[in-house]
Amino acid sequence: MLYNTLQDGIYIIHENNEWIPPFKEAFDRAGVNFNEILLTQGGIDLDSPPPQGVFWSRLSASSHTRDHSLSKEYGRAILSWLESHKRCVINGSDVLELEVSKVKQALLLESFFKSQGVDFKTPKTLAVFGKTDLINAASSFAKNLNHKPFITKHNQGGKGLGVRLFESIEEFRQYIDSDEFELPIDGITLLQEYIESKEAFITRCEFIGGKFHYAVRVDTSDGAFELCPADACQIDSKSAIPRPAFAGAACEVGMGDKFSLRKEINSKSSIVQCLEQFLAQYNISVAGIEFIESVSGDLVVYDINTNTNYNSTLESKIRQSGGVAAADRLVEFLHEKFRAITQ
């Protein structure tokens, strides 16, 4: 189909149907209609305008793991088309580029923290192109870290792709030479210092409309690297490590006890206010940002999820207690944007 023929409305742009049901339930609770643009098919007539509406981009860095390796390119084309016609796009083309590049995330976060004169940190990171120089690069990197443990991850990641802990260069060499090693989809492997947390959890702050909604404590005592709150996500046992916490990427299935609110973190917290300013500067409306409180007392921000998901068990508890769940606030935000366009 040609997306030019779509009716005016609220649209979710995505490639993974498994992540949509919780949002559909929130739309149903609010009595608000929504539509979908699936980044696996269709097309656009460049000589015709898009429909009027609000277009929420949920393109995921892990789309290639679902045999949707071209969805990133389809998303770039769709967003360019929408933005050229001045449509209301939530998490537009610049945000897409941030989603698919942890290099860009790290550079923007580090630059922003320095410009603000704050003490928040990002992990020391080395980006290596291809496989040829990985061992030499890792040897130099480990030396600079005084031979402390380090981790790897894929630049275009999500789902904890390529995230593993290494205690030594010899252990890393064995991995590189084994059948387990997988070159990232974009060929860029990140070597990153291992951040040990004071306690066995990481914190994920959810932002909607660029504003803080809540902070979630995610238990990492089992050592898993995949901590995305989405019920549809699965655990890869190879990504577990015998350590209390890490600088990884936050997926658990129905593990409500792993996710709990950190009520002591709120809109007045300095880390939250700083991250809100960061989101405003880079026009990011919807995101989940993760950080660790290290054993040395530093707050280390290590991951930005712009296709953020919410844990259904935690969300249900919030609604039952009379609070506003993130999915419901998100629908409200999108509907507010749509009413502003149509009134």
From TrEMBL:
<dbReference type="InterPro" id="IPR011761">
    <property type="entry name" value="ATP-grasp"/>
</dbReference>
<keyword id="KW-0547">Nucleotide-binding</keyword>
<feature type="domain" description="ATP-grasp">
    <location>
        <begin position="110"/>
        <end position="335"/>
    </location>
</feature>
<dbReference type="InterPro" id="IPR013651">
    <property type="entry name" value="ATP-grasp_RimK-type"/>
</dbReference>
<keyword id="KW-0067">ATP-binding</keyword>
<dbReference type="Pfam" id="PF08443">
    <property type="entry name" value="RimK"/>
</dbReference>
<protein>
    <recommendedName>
        <fullName>ATP-grasp domain-containing protein</fullName>
    </recommendedName>
</protein>
